Amino acid sequence: MRFIFTSIFLLLALHLSAQSIVQLEGQLKEAETPKEKMGLYIKLGEAYKGKRQYKDALSHAQKASQIASNLNDKGMLAQIAMLKGEINQIDRSYYKADAEFKNAFAYARQAGDMGLMAESTQKRAEVANREKKYRKASQIYEEAFEFFSDRSISKLSTDYDVLKEQLARDQRNLEKEKSALQREIQNLEKDRNRILGEKQDLERNQVQLVQKNQRATQQLSQQSEELANIEEEKNKALQQAQEVSEALEEKSSELKEMTKQQLEQQVLLQQATMDAQSAQMEVERNRNLSRMAIIIAGALIILALLIYGRYRSSRKAKKTLEEKNKVIEYERERSEELLLNILPAPIAAELKEYGKASAKQYKEVTVLFSDFKNFTKVAESLKPEELVKELDKCFKAFDFIISQYTDVEKIKTIGDAYMCASGLTDRRILPNNIVRAALEMQEFLEEYKQERIRVGKPYFEARIGLHTGPVVAGVVGVNKFAYDIWGDTVNIAARMEANSLEGHVNISEDTYKQVKYKFECEYRGKVQAKNKGAVDMYFVKQERKAIAV
After folding, report:
1. What is the pLDDT of residues 119-154, one digit of tens each?
2. What is the largest CA-CA distance in the chain?
């Protein structure tokens, strides 16, 4: 099985190496179906990864992940998570890489992809070893061994058949892409042959014009020679007439007898003169024709040069237009990404279309609040720049964690408090992902705490609380507008956080009822909450392990 997956990745790598980033972007613009776009985003991510442009690689991988999530394609989500993990691993963002490989394992398990599950486990262990967390690496291997040891031989055989069929489908798809590329190459070859044919026709026409010009020049030369011969004959005739005239003067006595002969000679002389004039006119006409042929040839050459120049200028203008369109498209995508970083996608779309967004009510939304313990005390022991740096580091980690879950939306930060929510959509969503995100936040803060203790620096510890219930969501303000949520659910979630303990995730009874089959929870009893009285609360311990079938 490992060999099969290795072959697939080698084929993809060879296919990617044959295409430049510019070609892939061109194909992306022409792609019509989401699957085509998803495949091209993955190829662009691989290409940018090879060029060490990690930010662009992660951006394209994230777009592919969004499409795969919309298509609910767990197999592709696993492969894309592996790609993002490899990019973060190369970029030495080990915490992000571990999270991505962990996601890849979860998606591969849902898709039944044993090969990717094994590979993601191996990658997680490599990341742990890189960070010198050998106990964590050992724990990862033990959990993987437990999981894979429970798999039966029949299941592995079935998975192998499924993977074999998937490989065959992928091979057929690659053949189709290859055929499409070959057809495109053939069309380009036809265009090239057509242009070469037109060029050869133009060269042949030019050669024919030159040959006609040479023939006209030869005819003019021949006619000039004939005219010279006629002139010579005329001179001879004049000389003979002169001789006759002298003879007549000498022999005036014989004038009468030779009158008839003299008249005949005069007639011949007049005929010769007329012939000479006709030849002169013919030479002049041929000279005019030659000039006209030279003018026509020059006009054709100038016309060809003008056509070629226009062709070159049109190509240059087209290239300039394409470059400007690329810049416009890039800026448009950047503006959309910035807008989506501020607002949820449906709200952003409504604002772009109508210029405003109406408030909406949602029945089941899970709100998360986190707050750092003894923040003021820690802040007093740090310089302002260092305080902002550490706070930014923690909030960036929180942003990255919730970005792994499409149904979790960041709302805002208030000082050292962080607020996000899940379920801000028209369809019902269980709060499983936002609870996972809360556990991952505490896991990050624990690792952060150990590192700060090691270097002798103060550290942050957070209380996290969650509650599920109805809220109203909307955009407020005109300048620097903000997306926010309101309702008693928000207040109760804040009480859950206030009554939590550092390093723990505290949830309400309403949230517990929806996640109790997914997470192991510890009942705390009824706890007094400000302005709410006694409220049932639970600590989330860990996610329940899936039982292998």
Report:
1. 888 888 888 888 888 787 777 777 777 766 655 445
2. 169
